[in-house]
Design a protein that fits this description.
The chain is an alpha+beta fold and 514 residues long. The chain has three domains: 95 residues, 2-Layer Sandwich (Uridine Diphospho-n-acetylenolpyruvylglucosamine Reductase, domain 2), CATH 3.30.43.10; 147 residues, Uridine Diphospho-n-acetylenolpyruvylglucosamine Reductase, domain 3; 218 residues, Vanillyl-alcohol Oxidase, Chain A, domain 3 (3-Layer(aba) Sandwich), CATH 3.40.462.20. Helices cover 33% and strands 22% of the residues. Helix 5 runs antiparallel to helix 12. The longest helix is centred in the last third of the chain and has 24 residues. The protein starts with a helix and ends in a 12-residue tail after the last helix. The structure holds flavin-adenine dinucleotide and 2-acetamido-2-deoxy-beta-D-glucopyranose (7 copies). The site of one 2-acetamido-2-deoxy-beta-D-glucopyranose has 4 residues, from loops. One 2-acetamido-2-deoxy-beta-D-glucopyranose binds next to loops. This is FAD binding domain-containing protein. InterPro entries: FAD-bd_PCMH, FAD-bd_PCMH-like_sf, FAD-bd_PCMH_sub2, FAD-linked_Oxidoreductase, Oxid_FAD_bind_N. Belongs to the oxygen-dependent FAD-linked oxidoreductase family. Keywords: FAD, Flavoprotein, Oxidoreductase, Signal.
Length: 514
């Protein structure tokens, strides 16, 4: 009879408890899973969550994407950097000659299937390392990787009255967001979230704990600014803090037939120079949501990070008649808490970047409408939610990154003001076949869009890691120079290529072929 890992694990625990067998030297019994048994030689078995534990299933379900809720043999939940270091040393020695197993590393758990979750192996779950605090002496806010942004914002607001350049959706995790760049309300002012990290505390593959900043391990510091899970596990981000000024913040809903005006407003907004644009932030998304009576609606989020309710930045958008609209002062903590996209659906996504040209934006709108029509007939109009996102990517963001010490995002490869486009589909009711179909449709949409962009002389080979589908070559798109640099850094801090080999999820340097 075939059993799932969870059933097997439960069976073994049951057998062991009824025979009172203790196979190890006292701390705990073997599980039969090499990476979980690696902990028998440490005093950290109490930090393991096996499938037999009541804490196990809630942890699986806490991943944002329904299809990312893979069931590992065990979770390891360190409370401190030292515990993680001990664990890494134990794991590097584990499983000689054993069958296939690997490791996933989880921050906030917002990425997709197989990225920070795994079935054949162990998940290092940083969720219990979730504190944040402010040091007025240095002006830095220290943020642990397993926190989600709303908790960071509330904590820093109430302990120091400061804030940081983090996520907009309060449910997004710190670790993945900052390692993949981090597009924030404050990005036009401060750069990507990673550009504001002054120091990283990192556990390397040999278990040693190092700091990476402008003076110490400066190459590692720069590589971590956008290079993802390729160099080590970050256990603390020391970030530039700023006063917690309330945002001027609003959301509006606009009918889809105003699309042409919306596109023009986005293009206009994106072309604003740094001196005009640095405090304003705009996100526009077209969405099909069965909760709405319309097939597609347009949602607009506006923020002025300096609390300027009279900013002129959004005039073109607010001139368009809206079905509903808000505009008020709001703390970043409240804004993040209130704008959490519900998880649980099986998610598919894709991203492209293209120059800020109206015909390309309009093409996404009609491709999105095609997608909604097609999925409505294939999987049923009430079984999915879509998003077709526009995020302004003005060219001056590259210079901000440079001023902050440089990153590996390769933004200088984008020859002008651009739009960071993403499509997302959440299958709320459907099986694996439905998800496979959506994956193919979204990928084909991207192929068509790339063609349009090229025909309009607006194609850009730049794929933002935090939004990329696993089929996309994000790191490669950051350019040969950055890939070469990241390879050098990975080789220096992980000479055995342990992270490349043992942590396969997400975007790995080893898989970049160019
Ligand atoms: C609803 C929603 C809203 C979003 N909004 C934004 C946004 O406003 N701006 C933006 O830029 N992105 C946004 N994203 C994308 C988001 O940044 C990525 O999904 C990011 O990976 C989430 O980080 P996480 O820690 O929650 O993810 P995880 O799934 O936990 O981790 C993602 C990757 O990072 C690695 N990782 C995590 N922590 C560490 C660590 N400490 N050390 C080493 N590796 C680590 C993991 O191994 C994995 O490869 C959003 C995503 C969702 C689902
Ligand atoms: C348990 O055994 C491991 C090796 O199997 C050893 O390293 C460790 O020191 C032992 N612990 C105790 C408490 O005896
Ligand atoms: C494990 O042992 C170390 C070193 O003796 C100690 O500092 C730590 O508190 C112990 N951890 C646990 C979880 O018991
Ligand atoms: C934060 O971590 C602590 C343990 O350090 C844990 O008890 C708590 O549940 C965590 N909070 C969240 C929101 O996960
Ligand atoms: C917090 O900081 C903001 C911005 O500097 C300021 O306006 C506000 O008065 C401060 N709040 C408190 C309680 O100090
Ligand atoms: C959009 O539709 C609404 C009513 O359905 C109508 O009042 C409005 O004039 C239309 N706008 C455009 C730009 O077509
Ligand atoms: C976050 O938002 C929810 C829902 O609006 C609300 O119930 C909760 O009190 C908010 N949390 C905080 C800390 O304000
Ligand atoms: C761990 O790796 C780093 C980077 O390669 C190296 O500098 C350090 O000496 C190593 N530490 C040990 C104890 O081997």
């Amino acid at each position: 009879m075939l059993r799932t890992a969870a059933e097997t694990s439960a069976l073994i625990a049951f057998l062991l408890s009824t025979t009172t067998a203790t196979v190890s030297n006292g701390t705990s019994a073997v599980t039969g899973f090499p990476p979980c048994d690696a902990f028998l030689s440490t005093n950290l078995t109490s930090r393991l969550v096996l499938a037999t534990s009541p804490a196990y299933e809630p942890r699986v379900q806490s991943y944002w994407s329904g299809n990312a809720r893979l069931r590992p043999w065990c979770f390891f939940q360190p409370l401190t950097t030292q515990e993680l270091s001990t664990a890494i040393t134990a794991l590097t020695a584990a499983g000689s000659g054993a069958g296939d197993w690997h490791i996933a590393v989880r921050g906030g758990g917002n990425s997709g299937p197989g990225i920070s979750n795994i079935a054949n192996g162990i998940t290092i779950d940083l969720g219990m390392m979730n504190r944040s605090w402010y040091d007025p002496g240095s002006g830095l806010a220290s943020v642990e990787p397993g926190a989600v942004w709303k908790d960071v914002y509330f904590s820093l607001l109430h302990n120091g009255n400061v804030t940081v350049t983090g996520g907009r959706d309060g449910g997004v995790g710190v670790g993945g967001f900052l390692l993949g760049g981090g597009n924030s309300y404050h990005t036009t002012r401060n750069g990507f979230g990673c550009d504001t990290v002054i120091n990283y505390e990192v556990v390397l593959a040999n278990g040693s704990i190092v700091d990476a900043n402008a003076n110490k391990n400066a190459d590692l510091w720069r590589a971590l600014k956008g290079g993802g899970m390729n160099f080590g596990i970050v256990t603390r981000f020391d970030m530039e803090a700023m006063p917690a000024v309330d945002l001027a913040y609003g959301q509006s809903v606009i009918a889809a037939n105003y699309s042409d005006q919306v596109v023009d407003a986005v293009v206009d907004f994106t072309n604003r120079p740094e001196e005009l644009g640095r405090n304003d932030h705009l996100i526009v998304l077209y969405t099909h949501d069965p909760k709405s009576s319309e097939d597609v609606m347009i949602e607009v989020i506006r923020a002025n990070t300096q609390g300027n309710l009279n900013t002129a930045g959004f005039e073109k958008v607010t001139d368009i008649p809206a079905l509903s609209s808000t505009w008020e002062l709001k703390s970043l903590a409240d804004a993040a808490n209130e704008s959490q996209v519900a998880g649980g659906g099986k998610n598919v996504r894709a991203t492209l970047t293209f120059l800020n040209k109206p015909p390309i934006l309009r093409a996404t709108v009609s491709l999105h409408a095609d997608l909604v029509r097609s999925l409505s007939s294939s999987i049923g109009t009430s079984n999915f939610i879509t998003q077709n996102f526009f995020q302004p990517l003005p060219s001056y963001l590259s210079a901000i990154g440079q001023r902050q010490g440089g990153n590996v995002l390769g933004l200088d490869r984008i020859p002008g003001n651009a739009i960071l486009w993403t499509a997302g589909v959440s299958v709320t009711n459907g099986d694996d076949a439905a998800v496979a179909l959506v994956h193919a449709e979204v990928s084909n949409m991207m192929v068509k869009l790339r063609e349009v962009a090229e025909n309009e002389a607006g194609g850009v080979d730049w794929v933002y890691l935090n939004y990329a589908d696993v089929s996309q070559d994000s790191l490669g798109s950051y350019g040969e120079e950055n890939v070469g640099f990241m390879r050098e850094v990975a080789g220096k801090y992980d000479p055995e290529g342990w992270w490349q080999r043992m942590v396969p999820g997400g975007f790995k340097l080893e898989r970049v072929t160019g």
